[in-house]
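Handout for the seminar on molecular recognition.
Each group receives one record of this type.
Step one: identify the two inputs.
Step two: read the structure output and locate the region that could contact flavin-adenine dinucleotide.
Step three: write two sentences on what you found, then compare them with the reference statements printed after the record.
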Amino acid sequence: MDQALSQLCETVRAASEARTPLLIRASGTKDFYGNESSGALLDPRSVTGIVDYEPTELVITARAGTPLAELEQLLAENGQLLAFEPPHFGANATVGGCIAAGLAGPRRVSFGPTYGGVRDFVLGAKLVDGRGQLLSFGGTVMKNVAGYDVSRLLAGSMGILGVIAEVSIKVLPRPMSHRTLCFEMTETAAVYKLNEWAGRPLPLSASMWHDGALYLRLAGASAAVRAAHHHLGGEELDNYQADAFWASIREHKHPFFEGDAPLWRIAVPSTAATLSLVEPQLIEWNGALRWLRTRQSAEQVRECAKQAGGHATLFRNGDRSVGAFTPLTAPVAAIHRRLKAQFDPANIFNRGRLYPDL
Amino acid sequence: MDSPPHAPSPDKQRSLVAALRGFLPGDAVLFREEETRPYECDGLTLFRQLPMVVALPETEDQIRRILQLCHEHKVPVIPRGAGTGLSGSALPHPDGLLLSLAKLNRILSIDPRAQTATVQPGVRNLAISEAAARHRLYYAPDPSSQIACTIGGNVAENSGGVHCLKYGLTIHNVLRVRGLTIEGEAVEFGGLAPDAPGLDLLALVIGSEGMLAVVTEVTVRLVPVAQTARCIMASFADIGEAGDAVAALIADGIIPAGLEMLDQAATRLVEPFANAGYDLDAAAVLLCESDGTPEEVAEEIERMSAVLLAARATRIQVSNSEAERLRFWAGRKNAFPAAGRASPAYYCMDGTIPRRRLGEVLKAIQALEPKYGLRCPNVFHAGDGNLHPLILFDDADPDSVARAEAFGAEILELCVQMGGTVTGEHGVGVEKLDQMCSQFDRPTLDAFLGVKSAFDPAGLLNPGKVVPTLHRCAEYGRIRVHGGNLRFPELPRF
Ligand SMILES: Cc1cc2nc3c(=O)[nH]c(=O)nc-3n(C[C@H](O)[C@H](O)[C@H](O)COP(=O)(O)OP(=O)(O)OC[C@H]3O[C@@H](n4cnc5c(N)ncnc54)[C@H](O)[C@@H]3O)c2cc1C
Ligand SMILES: Cc1cc2nc3c(=O)[nH]c(=O)nc-3n(C[C@H](O)[C@H](O)[C@H](O)COP(=O)(O)OP(=O)(O)OC[C@H]3O[C@@H](n4cnc5c(N)ncnc54)[C@H](O)[C@@H]3O)c2cc1C
């Protein structure tokens, strides 16, 4: 174990003995996401650097403090990418923060090998637990069922189980070709069409509907992309324009995300009907992700999400005291509390960040 | 290997049977030896143990009552699907109840618009694809055992198959699992909406070998059937070159729909049964498939062929019809039955290694054959680096059995040394408990025990599987240090 890592374990051990709450924070830019937490700041950025990258193995192993941009740059130089297309939301995003937040971008719902969120591509992880021990889960190979899949559990765990020190992530070849098409369409028609297309072997790699326009990204073998474009029609964006467009969706730079109205992230089954709340909306993931700007109460928004068969997260702005995430059922909450106690017996990490009692 | 004879206390058995019969029909509760015998092992027949009682519920409510009863009386519960598992993870407990989910075999709904199917746990893997076929959809993970194995077992093992390189494992294709905790409380993991709130418990439950919850309902993602598929059969003069060809395909940015390898021992084993037309002079044969639109497949087959030739393939044949494609696969799909006919018994290993080590590891396995005096053909998921060495042995000869086990253990140790894992898709069960001690350090193993107790504080659900105790690892370490070679004369404890 190198010095930065043993120092990190030592810090955690001391905090655990003193029962000092710790707030894990890398670039510290996402303090508004999730619930508020407090504690002595623990910056994992000293644990940094690419540990191993062998393009033919389709896996990259990096320390948590590695800048996400640096990792993606290295992949791009080798014609590869992170298939879950994570948002950076700024220049300093770290790999650890990306995994801990578990947020995927537009490519989350796509066809074939690129399908999936952050956890679908996590192969292994090293974690400093609440006793200051360095644990090592999973590995660097594609298939591994030795022991419970704790490394995938860390995706979206918001740092409540421990400090992620290192992760191994499955990567994929950059698609040979891509095209973005634009269609004029109502919301109902767009959601209907998207689900219909998803049921056919088309190389869909992203979708976005807002304000009467549907944007569709195709990516894959050039013959497949060409054939799909021919089949679907639509107006083609030039590639430079298209890249900028999808980046603005992923990074929330699109005008829809401006302003201080609360931003809700409503996740629903992709076929769900139009939401009962009539408010400005931006739809991604073939209909499964519906961003909503509304000042309605949390109860109303959560009820609306529930009616649609999903759940609502207060993503940005608004009053977080209502709880950023949808409450859990009692038996599932009990499992959460016991898991937290197993990994973090002194209850020091990111108290309350995910749920008030964790 | 039989576990020590252990008869459950007749009183305990009698009272459990009586209580179960209070809410289950008579034929759903088995306890006489001739009735429980069929459940004494799963697909790994080296380990056998009679359960105290077998229960065959038909509804979730019956399962709930069984669990409540067992929890109250501290009776271990071992869930079981079709019993095709290859690691002894469904091995009964002598004082426990074997919970067969086989009768919960209904497909509850198929939603072609959302491309999902919701099914009971005892539904067979292939039955889902058959039912979805009329919507031109299928369930992608396709274990070779798919005609028999259940979706509940697939969830428990995170099973894979030939299509997993491109379409993912069970974990990538299951959206939601409904289950019951050992206390009989209903829990939902995942959901039809993405990113269910809270920790991703679904990721823990998939691959948990029936130790965290009893699965009572599963919603899977279906994918559209490809318009067309073609397969390349490529011969190599050297097994190392075949391994390098796998890496070269990936390096070229290709993710084949299937990428499987058979070494020469394997092609010679299966050819007489399958008549697949394999090149029996080749040191290894690669099967490399492309699927998609006709245009896409044509483009990809051309690229794949170029890469394979550049990687020193000595012969290349591309399937020109669906019949020919299926013939290429016939040998691969019949490898296990062929091994079963060529030898009294076979022992299938399941380590996964980094792809770049394929050639090296296959050669090392070949070199071990004389050491143990046993043959070991290899037929496996090359694209994922997931090996399936088939150790051929004689199960009527105790010495042959012991040599097969020692050979297997050495292969697994080799996989760990190469930066891989002891199991890619078959699970740890009771079989690989010892090798878990080599792959993970104690704090990590203790964290696994912590996960187990977070779901099952009483430790009653499929106890003793997957995670070795401190004592067991100490013993294994002692044998490895002092025994020199890897022989375990004593019976495993669980
Ligand atoms: C809507 C939105 C807007 C954002 N805007 C900006 C912006 O304008 N500028 C900007 O720079 N960033 C921004 N971010 C945040 C961030 O850059 C990215 O989301 C990134 O992926 C998180 O990286 P981070 O290292 O900054 O995470 P942090 O915010 O530091 O951490 C995120 C979570 O992960 C936990 N965590 C971090 N590292 C670890 C670790 N090693 N182990 C365990 N837990 C860990 C933290 O405790 C926290 O719960 C934004 C995020 C969101 C969601
Ligand atoms: C010839 C042959 C070929 C095979 N090929 C492959 C292959 O290509 N890929 C692959 O991955 N595997 C393969 N296997 C292994 C095996 O088929 C899989 O592991 C399969 O998923 C087991 O399913 P099952 O229904 O038979 O489960 P079982 O063997 O009955 O049980 C397996 C595990 O699942 C648990 N379980 C079962 N049902 C439930 C439930 N409802 N709730 C909770 N736990 C449950 C059991 O407790 C046990 O731990 C093969 C096996 C054979 C015999």
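Reference statements: Chain B touches chain A through 99 residues (CB under 8 Å). Residues 398-417 of chain B form the longest helix (20 residues).
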